[in-house]
Amino acid sequence: MANDIAILKVGDKEIELPILTGTAGHPVIDVRALGGKGYFTFDPGFMATGSCESSITFIDGAKGVLLHRGYPIDELARDSDYLEVCHMLLHGHAPTTEEYIQFKDTITRHTLLHEQINMFFHGFRNDAHPMAMLCGTVGAMSSFYHSDLDVNSEDQRLRSAHRLIAKMPTLVAMCYKYNVGQPFVYPRNDLSYAGNFLNMMFSVPAEEYKISPTVERAMDRIFILHADHEQNASTSTVRLAGSSGANPYACIAAGVASLWGPAHGGANEACLEMLEEIGTVDRIPEFIDRAKDKDDSFRLMGFGHRVYKNHDPRATVMRESCHEVLAELKLNDPLLEVAMELERIALSDPYFAEKKLFPNVDFYSGIILKAIGIPTNMFTCIFALSRTVGWISHWHEMLSQPGQKIGRPRQLYTGEGQRKYTPIKR
Ligand code: SDX
Fold first, then answer.
1. Beta carbon of 303 within 6 Å of any ligand 1 atom
2. Which residue has the higher pLDDT, 86 or 315?
3. Does 221 fall in a domain?
4. Is residue 44 part of a domain?
5. Alpha carbon distance 118, 157 (integer Å)
């Protein structure tokens, strides 16, 4: 809704630009007319750019607020479950009990993968990084569902979304099983979403796997807390890929690739590797000094955030789960001791307060996942599993909007001016 105007004075010209306001958050200056007036905006890293209109998730970085369809993340994490959040994100509203039961049944009945997908894994080295396998196999899924790839059909978009939400746990668990050389475990319809994932990860033919309710709850909470996060790097990647009409599996594979980076979803894996490098509590000050040293590229992984400059609301809830799981599992892993001491020091050090560097969601999720017994190189796969609903909900929202166009940013060109080409003597 435009209710104000920004005036851009350029030389003796004035360019009027509408200011649009949403339900909450920063108003935006609508610069779409600038191209026709001979100017582009310049915003590398999109620090001050609104790329789209969305009603899925709202973040207030200064106040540490995260809402999914208006519901605060801490209330959802405490009182709902991941499939209920999936329904909200994808279908736009909290489900009634009947809608929840139907949605849960739909997802449950899509958890099996085509048997031939197993063959893809045998093309990977058995020590392949799980994210490499996930990237490849998610993209390959489009070769199994030719009949439902019309991105202009709402029904087909939703069917693809249900398939992806349902099959990602199966695929992620297969990446783990392939790494450890154990047989793939089929999904079970009698288990919860999180329980089914834990069973596919840890059960072996030789004995029954007992699911700990605390671990099952912590896993479901990790899924909720990573489900969506507005226009972050991987979600923006999925939107840009989807704007060309690429099929949903290809778009999600692009999101997996973008999430892999250590500055983004790879941070929980990088955080555990950092804790392993620190090794013991007495070495923490050395690494704190390195994090402050401008000439050292070292950063405290799991700390800081591009948007939250106060606290990450997800981290608050994740921290509770972290301490619950550690208490129940009665672990005395030195790594977890280092993590808790690093958290204490960082939260009390004025440097980190001044730079607004606090433990983010990835700091605590990494600790819980390690406590559950999930290997570090699987952490980002679990983040991708959880974020798939956010990615596919944004993809679906974008394609539902009228007048949707292919994304095509421009640039500030600083290369050579036009010059004559002289062919070389061959
Ligand atoms: C996720 O976008 C999302 O929403 C992402 C995510 C999601 O759910 O999708 O929330 C998930 O990606 C969480 C973030 C996980 N990444 C990490 O934990 C990696 C470590 N964190 C940093 O790489 C960094 O904090 C970022 C990338 C997360 C944010 O960087 P910014 O906001 O762009 O800030 P910056 O890099 O410009 O740093 C600002 C200052 C710098 O110092 P100065 O140059 O101003 O002197 O803070 C310093 C940085 O050097 N700094 C750090 C630091 N992070 C920033 N110093 C030490 N350790 C760090 N972790």
1. yes
2. 86
3. no
4. yes
5. 25
